[in-house]
Design brief:
This protein is α/β, with parallel strands linked by helices. The chain has helices spanning 25-38, 49-53, 57-66, 77-86, 100-110, 119-128, 153-166, 187-202, 213-218, 359-365, 370-375; strands at residues 7-11, 19-24, 43-44, 46-47, 71-74, 91-94, 112-116, 137-141, 170-175, 207-209, 226-227, 250-262, 267-268, 273-274, 279-284, 313-316, 319-324, 332-335, 349-353, 381-386. It contains 11 helices and 20 strands. The chain is elongated. It binds pyridoxal-5'-phosphate.
């Protein structure tokens, strides 16, 4: 706990919302400290793109700043501008690059650093960048195997030569991005690490950064001088196939709108799946419009083989309860029969994921990853931030 512990409310007021999110900023802070420890002598930055993975950039960024984070990564210039209004002193890097000459003004105005990903980014920054005490500060991204963004090694080599003469830009960070670090045994990890050592050697005067969350867990020399965790800060599993050591940060709950009994042989939800036994159903007021994906739908739906893949589970009164039928836009059904008659009531909440129902289990049942569940949460929830330095 920080000594400025507080609690803030945003989003829809609780009695009017179909669901609520409890966002535990102390858990976020603890996850940051854990990643800092794992990063060893490397500085630990924070990736807060996509509204801090759907959690809300302002309370998240303030909490991480209070924990000592000084460098932040967003995806888009607009996200950088929003973050600047929250953290006047932070170093803010924009991962997706410069967005052409038209965007250069916002970089200057908000003191953002573009991550230069291509020759056209570099030329535009040379022509339209701003100067601080150094000319045209930026980061450089060199591709080592992801083949998404980034300069080729040859281009980086030429740039290092040219820029040593002209000093036209000032790289503060040289980075690359790991493509398969969630699988520690994947041969691409070592290959990318080797390639990145050659990149580092080109730009010795600036900090090197290779690791996302999963990369940090690779340990050894991987962290370099600066790590860039995202998902692990927010409680998601970074590495496949091992127990997730991070604390859950978000608990998402759905309000029960109605409890009904369905007789054996009757149908339920869209598509009319037939239930085999008398079933007590909690009808809950969130659906795929709230980021609870339709692909999480329960057994007996055409999306799934009923016998082997039951869909996602909710959690209420100490028990896991299976999702029943198809998830709809605004409503989701859970089978609460096992809790017995009169056990659940209108106005109570079923946990969709969080403290009791691991987000990665729910994501897996929906054929996706925690990143996608978090960034899909949407604007219809009541949001309650607890703890932290908000
Ligand atoms: C999103 C992103 C990260 C953070 O990745 P996580 O897997 O969420 O830790 C780091 N670096 C880059 C380039 C990214 O795009």
């Amino acid at each position: 706990m920080t000594d400025t512990a507080a609690s803030i409310i945003t989003g829809v007021s609780a009695p009017l919302a179909g669901g609520r999110l409890v966002i535990d900023l102390d858990a976020l802070a603890e996850n940051y400290r854990a990643l800092k420890l794992l990063s060893g002598s490397a500085e630990t930055a924070a990736v807060v793109k996509a509204d801090a993975y759907g959690l809300g950039i302002a309370p998240v960024a303030r909490t991480l700043w209070a924990e000592g984070a000084r460098r932040f990564f967003v995806a888009l210039p607009d996200e950088g501008a929003a973050l600047r209004d929250v953290l006047p002193e932070a170093d803010i890097f924009v991962l997706n690059g410069l967005f052409g000459e038209e965007a250069a003004g916002i970089y200057r105005e908000k003191r953002l650093y573009p991550v230069l990903n291509s020759q056209s980014d570099i030329s535009t920054w040379e022509a339209h960048g701003y100067d601080t005490d150094r000319p045209r500060p930026c980061a450089l991204h060199v591709d080592t195997g992801m083949n998404r963004l980034g300069l080729t090694f040859e281009r980086a080599q030429a740039l290092a030569r040219e820029n040593a003469l002209t000093g036209a830009i000032t790289p503060l960070v040289v980075m690359s991005h790991l493509a398969a670090a969630d699988d520690p045994a994947h041969p691409l990890n070592a290959k990318q690490f080797e390639s990145f050592q050659r990149v580092r050697a080109l730009f010795q005067e600036c900090d090197s950064s290779l690791c996302n969350s999963a990369g940090i867990f690779l340990g050894g020399d991987f962290p370099g001088e600066l790590t860039r965790p995202g998902i692990a800060l927010y409680g998601g599993a970074a590495v496949n196939g091992v127990k997730n050591p991070m604390r859950p940060v978000v608990t998402a709950e759905s309000r029960i709108a109605q409890v009904r009994v369905i007789k054996a042989g009757d149908t339920v939800s869209y598509g009319g799946a037939t239930v085999a036994r008398d079933t007590i159903v909690a009808v809950c007021s969130t659906g795929y419009a709230d980021g609870y994906h339709r692909s999480a739908s329960g057994a007996l739906v055409p999306l799934r083989d009923a016998s082997t893949t039951p869909g996602a589970y909710g959690f209420i009164h100490g028990r896991k309860v299976p999702l029943l039928g198809r998830v709809t836009m605004d409503l989701t059904l859970f089978d609460v029969t096992e809790l017995g008659p009169d056990a659940v009531h209108v106005g109570e909440y079923v946990e969709l994921f969080g403290a009791n129902m691991p987000i990665d289990d729910v994501a897996k049942a929906a054929g996706t990853i925690a990143y996608e569940l978090l960034t899909s949460l949407g604007h219809r929830y009541h949001r309650h931030y607890v703890g932290g330095a908000v």
